[in-house]
Amino acid sequence: MSDNSNPYGGFGSQMTGQAHFGGAPAAPAQAAGGAAIKDTTTAGFTKDVIEESRNQPVLVDFWAPWCGPCKQLTPVIEKVVNEAGGRVKLVKMNIDDHPAIPGQLGIQSIPAVIAFVNGRPVDGFMGALPESQVRQFIDKVAGPAGADQAAEIEAALEEAATLLAAGNIQEAAQLFGAVMQAEPENPKAIAGMAECMLAAGQQDRARQLVESLPEEVKKTAEIQALLKKFEQIDEARKLGDPVALEHALALNPDDHEARMKLAKIRNVEGRREEAAEHLLLIMKHDREFDDDGARRQLLQFFEVWGPKDPATIMARRKLSSILFS
User: Is residue 21 part of a domain?
Assistant: First the structure.
């Protein structure tokens, strides 16, 4: 998604869609003293390593200015730590200036890297390893890259869906937008953003968002459900005035055609339970109407609403009672 086609712009001045998953965003390789890399001393070791390792793994790089292999390892380990996205921190200790700690740990050869987790040393290596092996070491200590991010994204999507259901469109859109920054083709995030646009009365923008998607993304269940919702919106526009349909039902409650139309209109208005009740009422009175059309329409609603929607759960329960009583 380019900045010029930002799908979540326009919801308000606070809408940025900026968030980071799986820890801090990866930064370019930097010298010691950066957010993920720092030097420590004998006095600072407890705070910088022992205490900090209770938040995330800390790698301690024991080195010395005269050590050739140390100079080989430094750019490699700093690069990999910065690209780890906050999964680990790197603390560097010059053993010439601070010999007590490496002496206590039995460090006899450098470079030596010791990983601390929850205040204790858990693993380590010696020598100037190649980048691939340093990455493997960090994955072993901190878990594979992407595992935390996937969990955070899923949690963000669930929270966004809850916010949207509660009518908090702005906050929901911020979370959906943040996920789209991390995963531009995440179908749940795209569908959620489109739902926010629909709720905000921005139907054209929602359609443009979906139309711009690659064909493979359009085939996902979430986007297919959204396309069906667009079809329902288009159909509802042609069904007439809901006030007139309600009046017709007041005069003749068995006007199933008017009730079917009103159900479709209420659905696109977001009044899902009311829409379902109209269709269930038709089924109770006349299963043969429109060749069991009320049941077929209700099943189409379920496809768009999703299995966890409260209206789906309620209507399925009542549908089962009608079908199997």
Answer: no
The single-letter DSSP state of residue 5 is G
Q: Give the Cα separation of 195 and 191 in Å (integer).
A: 6
Pairing of strands 112-117, 120-126: antiparallel
Q: How much is the pTM?
A: 0.50
Residue 160 lies in a domain: yes
Instruction: Point out the residues of the chain with pLDDT beneath 50.
Output: 1-20, 22-34
For the stretch 228-257, what's the b/e string if a residue is b when 16 or more beta carbons lie within 10 angstroms of its beta carbon? ebbebbeebeebeebeebeebbeeeeeebe
Dihedral sign (CA 79, 85, 88, 89): positive
Quickly list DSSP for 110-160: SSEEEEEETTEEEEEEES---HHHHHHHHHHHH--TTHHHHHHHHHHHHHH
The pLDDT score that the predictor gives to residue 145 is: 63
Q: Can you give the pLDDT at residue 146?
A: 58
Task: Render pLDDT for 37-53 as a digit per residue (tens, 0 to 9).
Answer: 999 999 999 999 999 98
pLDDT score for 13: 30
Angle, to 10 degrees, between the axis of helix 272-285 and the axis of helix 256-268? 160
- The domain boundary, picked from 124, 145, 166, lies at 145
Q: Work out how many domains the chain is built from and give that number.
A: 3
- Structural domain that includes position 265: 240-324
Residue 49: its H or E element: none
What's the one-letter identity of residue 36? A
C-alpha 41, offset from chain centre? 40
113 strand-pairing partners: 61, 125
Written as one letter, the residue type at 47 is: K
Show which residues are catalytic.
Answer: 67, 70
Answer for the pair 40, 92: CB distance below 8 angstroms, yes or no.
yes
